[in-house]
Amino acid sequence: MALSPFDLSGKLALITGGGTGLGLGIAEAFIQAGARVVITGRREEVLQQACKQLGPEASCQVNDVADLESIPGMVQTVEQKHGPLDILVNNAGINLKKHTFEVTDAEFQAIIQTNLNGLFALTREVSKSMAKRQSGSIIMITSMAALYGLPLVSAYSASKSAVLGMTRVLASDLSPQGIRVNAIAPGFIQSPMLLKALETDPERKQKVLGRTPLGGFGQPSDIGLAAVFLASDAARFITGINLPVDGGNSIGF
Fold first, then answer.
1. Count H helices, E strands: the chain?
2. Which listed site, 40, 59, 129, 146, has its alpha carbon 20 to 30 Å from 12?
3. Annotated catalytic residue: which of 156, 188, 217, 229?
4. Are the CB atoms for 145 and 160 separated by under 8 Å?
5. Total Cβ atoms within 10 A of residue 130
6. Mapping DSSP to helix (H, G, I), strand (E, B) and coil, where does residue 238 land?
7. Is the Cβ–Cβ distance between 131 and 174 less than 8 Å?
8. Among this protein's residues, is 148 annotated catalytic?
9. What count of other Cβ atoms lies within 10 Å of the Cβ of residue 139?
10. What is the pLDDT along the chain (253 residues), one digit of tens a residue?
């Protein structure tokens, strides 16, 4: 019997920011689909706790994607310890919620360094390795902030809009090498941080729910399952897209 086209057995995935939130949800979904995962992040304790939760198919590597000089060595270490990477999920990111007048140059640059510069440097290094095998899947995590003008997140929106544009260019550059590049734009996904933010702003909460046709908030597993699809052979003829997983928020009225 043929394996399901959604099956990721035998695949190795690197997931940045994999210790919590969306990254952890993606790691869980990948393992359920048969993959092994290596999660990265800045906090060793958080990563180790996540690995315990994920089980024996998960490993961790402490790394700050904003430290560009560390990235080639990190990729080399991961592949030496665990084997060639089949999948990269660029999930790590930081946000800043401030009015445009109050955002300093240093704050703006910090967002760009992590969300854009680090993402590009890691993608470049991993794709060099994938190109030798003429195979790979790279998934970017973009945002609703790349699709429309959310207030108070100018730096974050700039970074995610750039990632969206870069996804298309990288798909053009890398797909001839057998490397598919796609993005997922999460909607409002349930997390302690989101719930806390909306509890203090009931008007915004109602606005979010009111323009989400499916109602409610998404779960990290919803992003994880979309990532499994894009990483799998089921999406073998898909490259360069940005898939909103948002309950219809981006088309809601």
1. 9, 7
2. 146
3. 156
4. yes
5. 23
6. coil
7. yes
8. no
9. 27
10. 447 999 999 999 999 999 999 999 999 999 999 999 999 999 999 999 999 999 999 999 999 999 999 999 999 999 999 999 999 999 999 999 999 999 999 999 999 999 999 999 999 999 999 999 999 999 999 999 999 998 999 999 999 999 999 999 999 999 999 999 999 999 999 987 788 878 888 998 999 999 999 999 999 999 999 999 999 999 999 999 999 999 999 998 7
Options 1.10.510.10, 3.90.1640.10, 3.40.50.720, 3.30.9.10; CATH for 12-189+220-246 is 3.40.50.720
Q: Is 173 helix (H, G, I), strand (E, B) or coil?
A: helix
Residue spans per domain, the chain: 12-189+220-246
Backbone angles phi, psi at 201, to 5 degrees: -140, 70
